[in-house]
Write a structure and sequence with these properties.
About 40% of the residues lie in helices and about 20% in strands. The protein is an alpha/beta fold and about 675 residues long. Helix 2 packs across helix 19 and helix 10 packs across helix 24.
């Protein structure tokens, strides 16, 4: 059979007339020897503009027309530069339909405020305008290109902003759709988009278009996923920011996945996840030079491929998942993709109820659980203790933000339950509780909390390994909050403080009550975790913290906070300008030195590692006695449900890989 290739083109590849011409050349050449499906992103910069529009218009009553016109003109210019008159007139119909839909949604935002569903509808416009344009360009090149909206193919939950994909249903739909295509057709599919159970458009979050391409390749067992981009190959780090970055000509899927999850590969891990047990190779290539070899990621060996199933062996490793929000749902989907290699999922619970089955539950079905009429959560921990008493390796996975559950950890560890947590609470209670948890862990039952700092970045692991090797951590300098890095980066680029904060909230980077991020408490907790893991004894009330909001904001209701933020814009603009005059930028920095933690705003040199941070990136700089003046640096994306879920799964594997006994004879 003719090989099937999935070709994914990013924003720069479809963002100019010369790039679109190269896309047509690439697809036309490939059509001679392969069946092809094209996945397209929005034109470069469009998604950011749409996000700014949603934030700027939020409950203002303002006219959205200037924003709509800005987007319409961008695509109108691209069409004028790439299409003949008759094709341009046909594209104008799509342009008019989606521009009007954008106008209606932005009007609703201006009058009634932003909701996650409205924001997703706005963001979807970029891809929905790009795909018919790309298809028109390909038709002019002689191909039977069919514009296709992924919202009709990719089924998700209602988690707007970073929706979890219903993989079994999506794969069935993609299979039916592909079988119905006419011979020789070249579908052009919107990246980034899905549709919820309520039939509302959803977006797939960071790396969403890559994920769409990965879903297509995984569902259809494609021979190759070609990722066409603006770099010539994959590197061990971003070559634009790290001169030591090393080019990779080829690597295996096993090698690629950890690098991608650590944010070090330039390919989002979610693009590779659907491919990790299938036959699809990945090739990363530069759109600007189609003859360049790029980088090959070779597929997993056949021995690692396994179907999804449920094990019922009473001695096999097993899990209980507490919390089925964004992180918990992403974890379930990752677990589902492991098939027979996955630990048995005994149960899962939320604040609304719990489910349990001694024979094992299907993770994908739990992800779709309505929770109405389910059992109480309380008996689940008793069942977990009972399972551990039999000698079975059992793990509590905590994806909640519940301090009450965190207080249960010590008793669970002493009962033989292993724990993997994404919650910061347990490690930031009083020092004595942290010490007790470490004692229980050292006694044989493993306790992992890598994702409490930096999502999937190996910050905690690095500190733990340094201590285990006999080294002493002497200082930490870090920007461990993706939210605050994003806000400070935007302010440094000229945005107002209020706009930057509300945009971060609209993108899902910040909590619904932005004071939770702007208080600095999240950064304090991360520094406490790192310092305590390194062996230092620090209590919360010993930390010096500078919040980003005046004390008067504490008395406001959450609903009143956004309106009051604008009163701070002038002062923040002055601080940013003063920093710029000194060759610096503002960053919210956490520092640990001489046994003390300080968290607050700093001016840092723009060319420094802290100053170069952008987006939601985290940075950790460690200094130790052994390394002296040479620092150890870890950086990369430190936020996102899927990244965190990947880190949680890695921790689960580590606690289950332990050969230590599952029972601890420790005194209370």
């Amino acid at each position: 059979m003719t090989p099937l290739h999935i070709l994914k083109f990013g924003g720069t590849s479809v963002g100019s007339a010369p790039s679109l011409a190269r896309v047509a050349e690439i697809v036309t050449r490939g059509a001679r020897t392969t069946r092809q499906i094209v996945v397209a992103s929005a034109a470069s910069g469009v998604t950011d503009t749409l996000a700014r529009a949603a934030s700027a218009l939020d409950a203002t009553g303002a006219d959205p027309a200037p924003w709509v016109e800005q987007i319409r003109q961008r695509y109108e210019r691209l069409a004028a530069e790439t299409l003949p008159d008759d094709a341009r007139r046909r594209y104008a119909v799509d342009l008019g339909v989606h521009s009007e839909a954008l106008r209606r949604t932005l009007t609703a935002i201006a009058t009634g405020g932003t909701t996650p569903a409205r924001r997703d509808a706005v963001l979807a416009t970029g891809e929905r305008l790009a795909v018919p344009l790309v298809a028109a360009v390909l038709r002019e090149a002689g191909l039977d290109a069919i514009p296709t909206d992924a919202a009709s193919l990719v089924h998700t939950d209602d988690g707007h902003g970073e929706a979890a994909v219903d993989l079994p249903r999506t794969y069935r739909t993609l299979g039916r759709w592909h079988r119905a295509l006419r011979p020789g057709a070249v579908p052009v599919v919107t990246g980034f988009l899905g549709r919820s159970h309520a039939r509302a458009v959803t977006t797939l979050g960071r790396g969403g278009s890559d994920y769409t391409a990965g879903l297509l390749a995984g569902a259809l067992q494609a021979d190759c996923l070609e990722r066409w981009t603006d770099v010539d190959a994959l590197y061990t780090a971003d070559p634009r920011r790290d001169p030591a970055a090393r080019r990779l000509d080829a690597l295996s899927m096993d090698e690629a996945l950890p690098l991608a999850r650590a944010g070090r590969l330039g390919v989002h891990a979610r693009a590779l996840d659907p491919l990790q047990s299938g036959p699809t190779a990945v090739r990363v290539r530069p759109t600007s030079d189609p003859s360049a070899p790029g980088t090959w990621v070779h597929p997993a060996s056949p021995s690692r491929r396994s179907p999804v199933s449920v094990s019922s062996r009473s001695d096999s490793p097993a899990l209980y998942l507490a919390g089925v929000g964004a992180v918990g749902t992403a974890f379930l989907h990752r677990l589902d993709r492991l098939g027979d290699a996955a630990p048995v999922l005994l149960g899962a619970g939320t604040t609304r109820g719990a489910v349990w089955d001694d024979g094992g539950l299907r993770p994908a079905e739990v992800a779709r659980q309505s929770w109405a009429g389910c059992d109480s959560v309380a008996p689940a921990l008793d069942r977990l203790r009972a399972a551990a008493r039999t000698g079975r390796p059992v793990v509590l996975v905590d994806a909640t933000s519940s301090p009450a559950l965190a207080r249960e950890y010590l008793g669970l560890l002493r009962a033989g339950v292993r724990i993997v947590t994404a919650s910061k609470h347990a490690n930031t209670f009083e020092q004595s509780y942290f010490d007790a948890l470490q004692q229980a862990s050292d006694g044989g039952v493993r306790y992992r909390y890598e994702t409490t700092v930096g999502a999937a970045l190996p910050a905690v692991e690095t500190v733990r390994d340094l201590r285990a090797s006999g080294d002493t951590l002497t200082s930490i300098a870090c920007c461990p909050s993706g939210t605050l890095t994003y806000v400070m980066d935007r302010v440094g680029q000229g945005d107002t403080f209020s706009t930057a904060v509300l945009d971060a909230r609209a993108r899902g980077f910040a909590e619904p009550d932005v004071r939770d991020d702007l208080s600095g408490e999240d950064v304090v907790r991360k520094l406490l975790i790192l310092a305590r893991t390194a062996g230092h004894r620090v209590e919360r009330d010993e930390v010096d913290v500078e919040p980003l909001l005046p004390a008067s904001f504490a008395a406001l209701s959450a609903a009143d906070v956004p309106d009051r933020l604008t009163a701070l814009d002038a002062a923040w603009a002055q601080r940013s300008e003063a920093a710029r005059a000194n060759g610096c930028v503002l960053r919210y920095v956490g520092r640990f030195a001489e046994g003390r933690i300080r968290v607050g705003l700093e001016e840092v040199p723009a060319p420094s590692a802290l100053g170069r941070l952008a987006g939601t990136d985290n940075l950790f700089v460690f200094q130790t006695e052994r390394y002296g003046a040479t620092s150890l640096t870890i950086s990369g994306p430190g936020a996102g449900a899927d990244l965190t879920a990947g880190g949680v799964l890695a921790d689960v594997r580590k606690v289950l890989a332990s050969s230590s006994p599952a029972r601890l004879p420790l005194a209370a």
